Amino acid sequence: MYDQPRPNRAASAMTFDQMLERVRYEGAYPTRERAAEAVHHVLAALGHQLTGDERVDLAQCLPVEAALTLTAQIPTTEHLTGWGFVKDLAARTGATPAVARWDTGAVLAVVARLAGPDLLARILRRLPGGYALLFGQAELSRPQPAAA
Hints:
single chain, mainly alpha
């Protein structure tokens, strides 16, 4: 069962150059180089947080260059909330939290389209709260059980 290859749902769906152009458009970046910088920083940070089958499946949906950035990172044991993710990204890159949030939104909006709704839902279930907004999705809260 585990030795069978998984179908690559997004084979040839988007090249890395096309991904950079989409991120450049989403983030209103002045150059492709700035978009590429955002892609590498955000995907590297996501690679620290995402584990399991969702990590593997997401890598299969991304262009090779982006997948390598994601999977080159060793996942950490410290699971950050969405806001913690943005603050950590800001600290790692030397950017302000506002710039890190902007970069995250621009990159993860494109990643969400590449992943598709089913995989994105699985990814969001695996990550702590606060990531749905970073992927451009509504963050629905789960009802809390009533105290007896």
